């Protein structure tokens, strides 16, 4: 199934330099996205989920750089490409949807202009054909009267519609990989439901992989095929949706699930994770989660040695010293 | 619920904003409800439904277009009225209102924006004390340090600036500042929405503790139904400035009556695999513009159970079972206890 992989991230490490000091923001992250699959990257703010997407798109800010690892898309290592060559990949091979579509779209140009510009560039067609494609994709994302929408500006559209336009625009270039960075966070629940249903439907016929970034475990459980949990720039757990929700092994994953209020339960079941999220400038010996981990006291290794990822069952990786022990933290 | 004391009586409250000569935006439309003393009253709805405006009108940060906000808290006595009689906040002068403000406070969504970046945490909190109490500088400092500890910060944070604090810590400062003057009522406008899950749970726990220890009443505005269910005692659902449904939190989730409440609850992503392969009916379309709201029931344009009457006549807001209010024509036949 090797060639099934659309994106393969191997041992990715990235750092930011702040006041002439280097701070590692991603450490040894590996995962892959397969065709027709949605991979969710979950974590709280500062965990490195957005930096991961920026690394893939090669859009890191000036003080950030990739210090190691490979990002392989369609057989090419993106980290080795020059600025000129990466442009051929952005949009064409990988499209990105952002949290706030208003800032991603140009307010001075019509939807039609922006969509056609993209289609002409990536598919090399003339204006008329581009318009036909634009209409086709707007229809695909469930927009009524696409012809008249093309003449509108972004301010004339609601948040949900703008996000649909973004999705249509990204898909119209027929990318292999669609990166969605918190695409539903700014939307209301009823509109979020529409967009999630749309992405689930599209996944089947667009023949691409989706890399979905979110902090919302509820959204994850509805859209993900596989999940990667990040904490403070480290991958703490990876597995299929079934593995992660039925058998979470890392104390952070477990804590995260308990902190989300369950709409269907009658009991007060919100349980916070104690402590605060570490700053990237903080140095934490051993496991990055150990200061907040309820089990760290039972094992000396936690505060002295960073745990390596181990495969507890096929495709289920956990980076925790306690994961392989009999008294797994799940009990 | 008759044994509960009423803190606020909101009656026929309207708030509209004039946009131009011809266009007005009706943000809050004829809303009536009571808030009991010591309860956590939740308000949920999508963006633009008027939940923030409602909170601000109650606090008189916006002037009401019409209607009454009758307050039965301690400030009534300070203004020479009995608490039973109460005072209508909409009719108070600015000076009288200042007296009431000691009782009612607000906590905002974005803690970073509500703190002055050039002011230390200690100064931000003790300013409230300086304006509203007669404490001297030393006592103010002591009280502030105690407050910091109450909200889970350290006394050393007194001299920190907001930029050195995390989001959760900033929100704790916001809470400390709100409770500094010992209020009886706090409006929390999306107070935990900007926080990460693990921190959100911490802040909710803190708010729970504070309300128990200090006899506080919360007006909790949120779009997060999961949080509302577990944090609030009663929940009111707003749509386009109108109340759809009001019920005790658990009752609302178990026995939802209004079709909008139904779709709203159904749209919430569920944790885990249970709801995964279930086809969820989605609510079609989007919220109509409040500038030109639909005739009849405001929800009829998206309602799956829409009847002929819904298009023309606005449903009455009535109590269908004890403490459970709904505004929907589907329940017209049930015994009418109009309020």
Protein topology:
The complex is a heterodimer of chains A (331) and B (339).
Chain A: E1 5-18, E2 21-34, E3 38-42, H1 49-57, E4 64-73, E5 76-77, H2 83-86, E6 94-97, H3 101-104, H4 111-123, H5 127-140, H6 146-149, H7 159-172, E7 177-181, H8 189-206, E8 209-214, H9 217-223, E9 226-231, E10 234-240, H10 241-246, H11 251-258, E11 310-313, E12 316-318
Chain B: E1 6-18, E2 24-36, E3 40-44, H1 51-58, E4 66-71, H2 75-78, E5 87-88, H3 94-101, E6 104-107, H4 121-132, H5 137-150, H6 167-179, E7 185-189, H7 197-214, E8 217-222, H8 225-231, E9 234-239, E10 242-248, H9 249-254, H10 259-267, H11 308-312, E11 318-321, E12 324-326, E13 337-338
Parallel strand pairs in B: 3-8, 3-9, 6-7, 7-8
Antiparallel strand pairs in B: 1-2, 1-4, 4-5, 9-10, 10-12, 11-12, 11-13
Could you please describe the fold and organization of this structure?
The complex is a heterodimer of chains A (331) and B (339). Chain A has 331 residues and is α/β, with parallel strands linked by helices. Chain A is 31% helix and 24% strand. In chain A, the strands form 2 sheets. In chain A, strands 6-7-8-3-9-10-12-11 form an 8-stranded mixed β-sheet, with helices on both faces. In chain A, strands 2-1-4-5 form a 4-stranded antiparallel β-sheet, covered by helices on one side. In chain A, helix 8 (189-206) links the parallel strand 7 (177-181) and strand 8 (209-214). The mean pLDDT of chain A is 89. Helices cover 31% and strands 22% of the residues of chain B. Chain B is built from 11 helices and 13 strands. Chain B has helices at 51-58, 75-78, 94-101, 121-132, 137-150, 167-179, 197-214, 225-231, 249-254, 259-267, 308-312; strands at 6-18, 24-36, 40-44, 66-71, 87-88, 104-107, 185-189, 217-222, 234-239, 242-248, 318-321, 324-326, 337-338. In chain B, the strands form 2 sheets. A 9-stranded mixed β-sheet of chain B has the order 6-7-8-3-9-10-12-11-13, sandwiched between helices. In chain B, strands 2-1-4-5 form a 4-stranded antiparallel β-sheet, with helices on one face. The longest helix of chain B has 18 residues, at 197-214. The two termini of chain B are 15 Å apart. The mean pLDDT of chain B is 90. The A-B interface holds A 44-45, 158, 160-161, 188-194, 196-197, 215-219, 221-222, 241-242, 245-246, 255-257, 259-264, 266, 268-274, 276-277, 279 and B 46-47, 166-169, 196-202, 204-205, 223-227, 229-231, 250, 253, 263-273, 275-276, 280, 282-284, 286-287.
